[in-house]
Amino acid sequence: MSYKIPTGFPENFLWGGATAANQLEGGYNEGGKGLSTSDMMTAGTHTVPRRITTELLPTENYPSHEAIDFYHRYAEDIALFGEMGFKVFRLSIAWSRIFPNGDDTEPSEEGLKFYDNVFAELKKQGIEPLVTISHYEAPFALAQKYNGWSDRRVIDFYVKYCETLFNRYKGVVKYWLTFNEINILTMPFGTFLAGAMLPEGGMELTNPNSSSDQARFQALHHQFVASAKAVKLGHSIDPDFKIGCMIAYMCAYPLTSNPDDVLLAQQKDNIGNFLCGDVQVRGEYPGFAKRYFAEKGVELEIAEGDEQTLLEGTVDFYTFSYYSSVCVSADPEQEKIGGNMSMGLKNPYLKASAWEWQIDPQGLRWVLNNVYNRYRLPMMVVENGLGAVDEVQADGSIHDDYRIEYLREHIKEMKEAIIDGVDLIGYTPWGCIDLVSAGTGEMKKRYGFIHVDKDNEGKGTLDRSRKDSFHWYKKVISSNGEALE
């Protein structure tokens, strides 16, 4: 018997790019917008962590306040996306632009009209929106009044926010993601960034003692319930909605063939990646999570009806971010290296970026197969890219061949995964236009095909210009992933 296998990307593959409101929009105090958690985060660097302030301090630089001013320049930016040939654009809606305090009785019409205009520009360019409902941004008032997602009442505020969006944009937006990188709440780093909870031990964003396991996993449970309720609600409002999850896939290999290392890698995969995937895709907590909670002394408060809600509110497709991989070992003496919001061990077979993120295109193929073989749902890679320092030449050109090489090799591995049988339907590289780094607050760490004239201190004209990668990616899209050189 002969098998027919794919030879490349499907004809309707969704090529595009990804951004987030808090790193892109600016206009932090315009259009009726309330302060968000990201508006309270200072600038940082690779070595100096971002800090959280409970009030705005005139001596601090808050990068999200202006970001790259998409709020005023969205038409120009979307026209550039259209020029590249985007089929899809991943953006997030700023919750505090719709409900300034999170628990408001009525939404802000001015905020909704802003996104009306954004979606109209996307439609003009023939670009499908992919909307993240909550992307590292919540009304700061929810952090102050309720300590964010630690309070079960925030579920209802979120669902009301979703209901507003679903009704407003029915027939306009088809693809939705409930929470960005929801699994970041499994780590202390996610306490404020993803959970909108004020840190318990110091106001540094990366403070390893920012919350207890109990607090974070309880907040995560509330987000699971909120996501499931949103999925059910969305399908009732428009059966054509496709609502997905979004996981920061943290790819960890065993450093050696020592069974202790192999088992540790599996455990990291389970808790870091599959706990959230299993709840959102399968609708229930897996056995390994229950054991983990018991060993950590975590006792979740699960309200009557929550388990049924999780079963009924499973997602339609699975999306994830992938930037790099690390190794893990039971040996505590091994050399550590950075990664996407995590630390792991150095892989002797890989090169690393200037920010110590190890470059591993084949890891993307491994992840795609690993996830698809578990869930059998359509998949999208909704973040992937290389953060690097770009040098502007005297004539204004930017020769970012290092970015092209990174993306080329990852696209090749996506194609291999499709031939393997993975149902991959879209690819939106991160920061298709230069924007503020979530982890460090820098502009210096650039991902985009489009350069934005702004530096770490917030100085610059904000003028946009095309990098070499802009023209390269345009050819990739027009050839449906065949013209990669």
UniProtKB/TrEMBL annotation:
InterPro entries documented for this protein: GH (IPR017853), GH_1_N_CS (IPR033132), Glyco_hydro_1 (IPR001360)
PROSITE patterns per the UniProt record, alphabetical: GLYCOSYL_HYDROL_F1_2
SUPFAM superfamilies, A to Z: (Trans)glycosidases
Gene3D superfamilies for this protein: Glycosidases
Pfam families: Glyco_hydro_1 (PF00232)
Record NCBIfam families: PRK09589.1, PRK09852.1
Family: Belongs to the glycosyl hydrolase 1 family.
Protein name: Beta-glucosidase
Source organism phylogeny: Bacteria, Bacillati, Bacillota, Bacilli, Bacillales
